[in-house]
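hey so u asked for the seq, here:
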Amino acid sequence: MEVMVNTDGEGGSDGGGGDPMSVDDNANAVVEMGVGVDQGKGVGPQHDIVDNDGVMEGQGAVSNSGDEMGKRGYGDEAETEEAATVHGSKEGTEELLRKVVFSEEEAYKLYCDYGHRMGFSIRKGKQSYFTGTKRIRTKDYFCSKEGLKEGEKLTDANFNDPHTRTNCKAMVRFRVNDQGEWKVIRLVSDHNHNLARPEERHLLRSARSLIAGRSSSVEAMLYGGFQTPGAACQIPLGSTSVTNNAETSKQDLLPCYSSMARTPVIGNGDLQNLVRHLKSRANEDGMFYWDVQIDRGGRMTNFFWRDGRSRIDYDCFGDVVVFDSTYRLNKHNLICAPFVGLNHHWQGTMYGCALLADESLSSFVWLFKSFLEAMGNRHPRSIFTNQDQVMSKAIEEVFPNTCHRISRWHIQKNAASRLGALNGSKAFNKLFTKCMQGCDSEAEFGETWAEMLSEFKLEDNKWLKKLYKLRQKWCGALNKHTFDGGVEYEPQCDSLSNIFNCIADKFTSLSAITVAVDKLTEDWREKEFDEDMRCSQKPPACIIKHSDILNHAAKVYTHRIYKLFETDFLDGCGATKFKELQCEGSNTYQFEMTMQGRGSRVCTVHFDMTTMQLNCSCSKFETMGLLCPHALKALSIKNVCSVPETYILKRWTKDAKKWGFNPKQYESSYRECMDDEAAYCNHVMHYAYDLVVKSQGHEELRKSLWETLESGEKELEKYLENVTQYALSYVPLERSID
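ran it, structure tokens below
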């Protein structure tokens, strides 16, 4: 007798939505197998079937496999070494059918590799055991769009949606023999839905799970309570910093992960584990960067690190940086300070993290210089921090051309403790918020500030006086021409502030906090992958289906940014009054715009149709990188049916990273790479690194990349050989002339 257990979603990343083949984690995918099985009514005489929670089948998703199996019981295929049964196309199945593996993990990876080559994602299915043992006899894996979600109707609109199951029949069955060999005995290769295109396949969820396996082992070590060894970690004391030390073997990684809350203070051992962890990360990631500052006594004081992907993200989205130094570890009295920003989906992205011994000028200067070095000396356009005078001086020294802003969340947090009962006043909060973000001009800010002080008798409040002196760093009306990417809007303001409060206890060890940062970073990147996949499948639905400008925006922008654009378009075209003013020149126009229901505020738009130049007094494009409702109204009035190319900010587009990696996308960037050796090396290394990351974990992609590199190497060698032969033939000729 064989006992079958549903392990749907177990062990992989494919339980949730996010790619075209993803499914609902909470639905128990049930496979109908056995003799005379009716849907949801038990099983045949050969087998007992239960799902992960011991619930009998018939709940959640409806299976597809009963009609496939006919009358044969689960796992009842003949024991003879005959060829596997294949239903459907045999294209690309050779390796899957031929290869023998020796574990469940290897079987899962083998089918994942096949799925990745073909363009679909994988889910784990049922398994049967040898009677009276825990030894697996047969194991099924399905396309992630197997079955149907309960209550969901399939339509043309949702059939290829990433979150929709389509009752796809594709599956594979492995059998394990007495020697522990896993072989494919059944394969259904045809799908009833679109497969991912080659350029999208690295985004498939189960394909990513092969890469994420290393992170899972990190978590296991983190919470497994590994003990700290007493071996010392040697740091050269003759220098002021140590960068990118990558000498430690992977075995040295294990002791780094002490239990977060249970590990006692271990002094130097904690520093040793931290350094081991950073060195091991550098071993694994060729673009990993870390730096440590050593004081005159040879003691390690400050740390900074970032991985290779963070450098890539910074190259694409590093125009705005949020630096939070308010989180302090009680255990060591160290400051945990992340550098974060926003990606093209308006989501959080990690640029690096620091551990600081103090908040001195020298510590901040060292950190910001280390950050700049790690990011190729590219300065951000804006940096948001807490209200710290010493940090402000360090920013002026290291980032002289960067606009320094004080974060809104930090001001509001301080207001809670500085203004007491006033924080409960809606009238006060309305005026205070308007001072920060709601004023259109410096004059309006001055009037609103004076009104707030007068109405609530705050003229002598010392904190507000100090805050007013720093108004240039936090008042939106005084920063209308500085790009901030909307980082101060909800919910970005909340999601990027105090991020460590969500991931670690204040008594966490140093090595554990680095793992916690890795975990948070991985979670953010997983969300980015999901959005990338969603954007690659289809454009967002336009609320006005036949609007040319909305369809154009939906084609170029990511889904999240498109929705912001669409809201402004509707506000502009449906809720804006305008007055056209006379201008000199036949193709130059000026409009006065008034938003309905927004008071009497008037915004002025200048539009030159010859050059397609737009300028609005609200300055939303300058700060956010998206056209405002007033500008979109002007385009509508003049029957402009697409977003002018000048006003499509690359960082908000679906192809934001492609533009960042490949300078050939723009002639000016390409010329810079060809003319400047340093720029050429920088772009090529990052471009190649991105290709390596995409191919990691997939055998076919790795082979393809190797073949491409070898082909390129042959071309280079051939060229260099020709140059050498030419040089050798030229020298004698020159001598004969002499």
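The mean pLDDT is 76. DSSP finds 22 helices and 20 strands in the chain.
lmk if thats what u needed
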